[in-house]
Design goal:
- This protein is α/β, with parallel strands linked by helices and 268 residues long.
- The protein is built from ten helices and eight strands.
- Strands 1-2-4-3-5-6-7-8 form an eight-stranded mixed β-sheet, with helices on both faces.
- The chain is globular, with a radius of gyration of 17 Å.
Length: 268
């Protein structure tokens, strides 16, 4: 029985040298941008954070891959994660990374709608199939894009060919018991509204729920939960635990063109 929900959803406290990761991510991202073919800070909305970066492969893109960052809807910006485009770009895809408004300035339902807005605009810039990936809170946001109540235009929905939720949060109701909810202000109604596990998925979109095997038990449970429930809707969905990975390094394989994580993202 869980009695300390803040501890249950605490990642850094259980990762060695956790404090070094944000600088590592930012430095890796900045280095990637020095050699990448990119358009940066493309506006998709009126807010200061409503921008995305778009990285291009050599030649015409095979399609569009979108990565949505995590940070508990409270932290980080697109430019900390540019390097994670490397694997998909090397596979020939254009890769977009959006920022979005954060809590407490924006409620989680509003953040979901901003990601909808971002993907809708990004899809106008790159032709072909669309492949979504997100980490942690970003995993929540990309799975919300393929729930049956999605407000993505039907033409965009029809182009989505694969989704990977990496260490995703799919049932937000337990998060109401954490101190972080002072900023999210989740209620029973909004937590249920924003929980992908409580919605039916769109048909015919393969989904991978990917998590590090060394993650906190709640993240392992959240990962398996969506795969378990959505299996009942007859979609192609699987849960995967990556050996030796924790919450902060589980995304690292996105830089590797030949990794299983990139393959799952691109549906290849």
């Amino acid at each position: 029985m869980i009695t300390d929900w803040d501890d249950a959803y605490s990642n850094g406290a259980y990762i060695e040298h956790a404090e070094t990761y944000p600088k590592f991510w930012a430095d890796s991202a900045a280095h990637f941008r020095t050699t990448a073919r990119a358009e940066l800070d493309i506006v998709y909305g009126a807010g200061e954070r409503e921008r995305f970066d778009l990285f291009y492969p050599e030649g015409s893109p095979k399609g569009l891959a979108v990565f949505v960052h995590g940070g508990y809807w409270l932290a980080f910006v697109k430019s900390s994660w540019s390097h994670l485009a490397a694997g998909a770009v090397a596979q020939g895809y254009a890769v977009a990374l959006p920022s979005y408004p954060l809590a407490p300035q924006a409620a989680i339902p509003a953040i979901t709608q901003k990601i909808t807005q971002a993907i809708t605009q990004i899809a106008q810039l790159v032709k072909g199939s669309i492949h979504l990936a997100g980490h942690s809170a970003g995993g929540h946001l990309v799975t919300r894009m393929i729930c049956r109540d999605s407000t993505l235009p039907e033409a965009v929905q029809a182009r989505i060919k694969s989704v990977v939720s990496i260490s995703g949060l799919h049932d937000l109701r337990p998060l109401m018991r954490t101190a972080m909810n002072q900023k999210w202000q989740l209620t029973a109604e909004t937590a249920a509204q924003e929980s992908a596990a409580l919605h039916a998925p769109l048909a015919n979109i393969p989904v991978t729920c990917w998590v590090g095997a060394l993650e906190r038990p709640e993240f392992l449970r959240q990962n398996d939960l969506l795969a378990n429930i959505w299996t009942g809707f007859g979609i192609d969905i699987r849960a995967h635990r990556e050996a030796g990975r924790h919450h902060f390094d589980v995304v690292a394989d996105l830089v590797d063109v030949d990794s299983g994580l990139v393959s799952a993202w691109l549906g290849s």
